[in-house]
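forwarding from the other thread:

> can someone predict this with adenosine-5'-diphosphate?

sure thing
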Amino acid sequence: MACLIFGCAKSDGEHYERGEKIMGTLVTLKADGKNSRAAVDESFEKIFELVEKIKTDLKRLEDSAGKKEFVKISPEVFEMLSIAQKYSELTDGAFDVTIAPAVDVWKIAGKNKILPTDEEISAAKNLVDFRRLSLRESDGSAMLEKSGMRIDLGGIAKGYGADLARKIFAEKNIRDGLIDFGTSTIFAFGKKNIGIKNPRQKNELSEILEIENSAIATSGDYEKFFVLDGRRYHHIIDPKTCRPTENKIASVTILVSGNEKNCATAADILSTSIFVLGEERGRKILEQLPDAKIINLAHQSP
Ligand code: ADP
Ligand code: MG
């Protein structure tokens, strides 16, 4: 019997699985082996804690933006921001966690079905710049330089949550299991077949991929979007223009091997980054990352 109900757990001998609605998606953790239940339940505990830490820390950062004061944040959020900054450099700013003001402009536009004005876009642009997020390693604190700046971890937190669970599964010697952050990121212990959704036929799969001890992450224009005057406006924003990216990609899936320490976090970041960069520039950047590759890419039809 499949278990698809939120907050539902199922146990069968040494197999244990549980699903919870977290970070706007259905997170399903499955494990086989004698520690399966402990691995899954402890992982969920850590993921729920992570969600709380993110909420508190982002609020504190936002409240202190522009006040020229570093604020101490949790080690987890600090680590996420540090990894994000590394990838912002690598992708020439295509991935940028200070994107929040621009994401909000487009969220409001979607809700009201009115496109934002140029003024609203330039106001957001003024606040989006990862170089104005400072991190201080010595005491694990952070600072946003300008008042109004805000952080959005929507392109990294699911991958980071998957890595947290992956570490707990590994400590518990789980060899066969699945960490599934719904629309975003998956890590497979052992061999697993994963269906990749067809971006234009949501109930169809475009491909089934076999992955083993690796993370995959997908970014697409089909999960969160609105249509206005026949045009599709999705949720991935180019930090340079503060508008939804236009790169002809409908969906991209990145695989990062489990050799990489933060493979799920990296996969989550890279799928969003390559969606922004487009295929050609994206592939160039991946040349520098031997553990990462594109395993599925669908173009928008003309
Ligand atoms: P999912 O939420 O399914 O994992 P993605 O991994 O592609 O989707 O992340 C998209 C989310 O990342 C957006 O909803 C937004 O919160 C955030 N985001 C949008 N554009 C960027 C960007 N250029 N850099 C970093 N984060 C972004
Ligand atoms: Mg993602």
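Confidence is low (pLDDT under 50) at residues 1-5. thats all i got for now
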